[in-house]
Design a protein that fits this description.
This protein is of the alpha+beta class. The chain has helices spanning 15-27, 43-46, 53-62; strands at 4-7, 11-14, 37-41, 78-85, 88-99, 117-123. The longest helix has 13 residues, at 15-27.
Amino acid sequence: MAQMSDSPATGPFHGGRVAEQNNRFRRSFGADPTLPGRIVLTQGVAALGAAALVPLMTALIRFDDFTEDNDPFGLRDFGAFEIEAEGRAVQLYWKIDLFDADERFGSEAPDDPDRTRRVLTLLLPEEW
């Protein structure tokens, strides 16, 4: 059973359930129909071109390097990785934000997929 956690952004919720859902959303690249949401590429990531998409998706789906520094609440909602693009190593960040069903405000029930929409943003560090 998931323990109750407390996040400064959202208050009490089942953090273990949110972490599991975030992992499923990220690993499916947003294609899991039980977890509504979308993937967003910033202008810098989009400028890497179509050839960068496969290594980017592969790295994101396989990401499992969670630490106290990048995941202090255990929600599996942020990570950083490197891919080869345009003949050079490119550092990327990803972040999952949890919104209400209308994507206007933060979700009041982040562990309830019926009331939460995930937005996973892929960005370059300088776009943070």
